[in-house]
Design goal:
This protein is an alpha+beta fold. The protein has six helices and ten strands, in the order H-H-H-H-H-E-H-E-E-E-E-E-E-E-E-E.
Length: 362
């Protein structure tokens, strides 16, 4: 006799399926922010580690170079010629030529070149190339790239791959810059910018002078371009660009050496300018430490052409061509430290350059 065992199967009802889907969606909603926070936290730690390594390299450079702060030092009067590359016609072009030489020496591409030597200001974002010999890897090296800086991480992952600067979110550095030039060089940039006073020696001398001649010898903030810098109007200032000596730093534990122009920390996936309120970012201090700050932690800086004024350099962050709202003007902070290398960026009042004692209020 055959016995058939019956199996009573129970199908999910529509309500049960909807409940399961709702539970899964709820779990995803809880996990995604947690994963994003963990990713950002890991990025913060790696970024701080990068900056500490750069600090070690910068200190080694200063020891080997008799106290000079690392930076591009070629000028029109003192530079090397590179076969196949046009001769520079200005100090700025000589510095770009040095970038070409450094990339050829320390990257897998010994024939690397730029279509033009003009159009961008290399001192703040490319001076790290002078530290290449202190790192075991070739350029571009991950130590000089913030792990949360997605555009630069993508561009530097394959230096032989063509990319669209706009698509990766790269920032054109001036009105005369071109996407072609940016495409050629961007992979070798650093996420970490030098403070202007680490490049322009005129920021660090005669800081209380009332002479217009002295004021005109300094580089100043372009009022409309957040990353723009206007050259000095005094012809005698050409020798001020280069690498100042670290002995000029009066408070190495309170003076920032490197910072993010665009910060990808604090969940800012598209990058936000460092001077916007509440934007956190790790910074490298002259004493070799790496710490995180928001603009609220920092002194506001100065206008190098008006040292007796309490007002800092300001940037008009225009969101469109018709945006002239004064609420969009922000101080320059660590980029334009009052008194240059002699000054203090945090954990203390700004030094005196002849400004009134009242606090500046934007």
């Amino acid at each position: 006799m055959n016995h058939h065992t019956g199996c009573r199967c129970h199908a999910f009802t529509l309500i049960e399926l909807l409940v399961v889907v709702a539970v899964i969606a709820l779990l995803i909603g809880l996990l995604v922010p947690a994963l994003a926070a963990a990713r950002n936290s890991a990025g913060d730690v790696r970024c701080l580690s990068n900056l500490r390594q750069i600090g070690i390299g910068a200190n080694s450079y200063a020891v080997d170079e008799n106290g000079l702060i690392h930076g591009l030092s070629w000028t029109l009067a003192s530079h090397e010629s590179i076969p196949g590359v046009a001769e520079p016609t200005t100090d700025l072009e000589a510095a770009v030529l040095q970038v070409v030489e450094l990339v050829r020496t320390h990257s897998p591409n010994p024939d690397w070149e730029l279509s033009t030597l003009s159009g961008f200001f290399p001192y703040l974002r490319y001076s790290h190339l002078t530290l290449a010999s202190y790192f075991e890897t070739s350029m571009p090296s991950p130590e000089f790239v913030c792990p949360l800086d997605r555009p630069l991480v993508q561009a530097s992952s394959d230096i032989f791959e063509e990319f669209d600067p706009v698509e990766v979110g790269a920032e054109v550095s001036s009105s005369s810059d071109t996407q072609q030039s940016l495409r050629e060089r961007f992979a070798f940039a650093s996420s970490y910018h030098l403070s202007v006073s680490a490049v322009d020696s005129a920021q660090n001398v005669d800081i209380s002078s009332t002479e217009r001649r002295v004021h005109r010898s300094r580089w100043v903030q372009n009022s409309t371009a957040p990353n723009g810098i206007d050259g000095p109007t005094s012809a005698s200032s050409r020798a001020s660009l280069g690498a100042p000596r670290i002995e000029k730093v009066r408070a190495p534990g309170q003076k920032v050496l490197k910072f993010h122009q665009l910060s990808y920390h604090g969940g800012n996936r598209n990058g936000e300018y460092f001077f916007l309120p509440g934007i956190p970012q790790p910074m490298l201090v002259f004493d070799g430490s790496a710490r995180s700050f928001t603009p609220e932690d920092l002194n506001r800086g100065w206008n190098p052409s008006q040292p007796q004024s309490a007002n800092p350099s300001t940037v008009n962050l225009m969101r469109n061509d018709r945006d002239t709202n004064d609420d969009n003007r922000y101080p320059g902070y660590i980029k334009w430290t009052r008194g240059g290398l002699r000054g203090i960026d945090f954990a203390g009042r700004e030094i005196s350059t002849g400004q009134p004692t009242e606090v500046y209020t934007p």
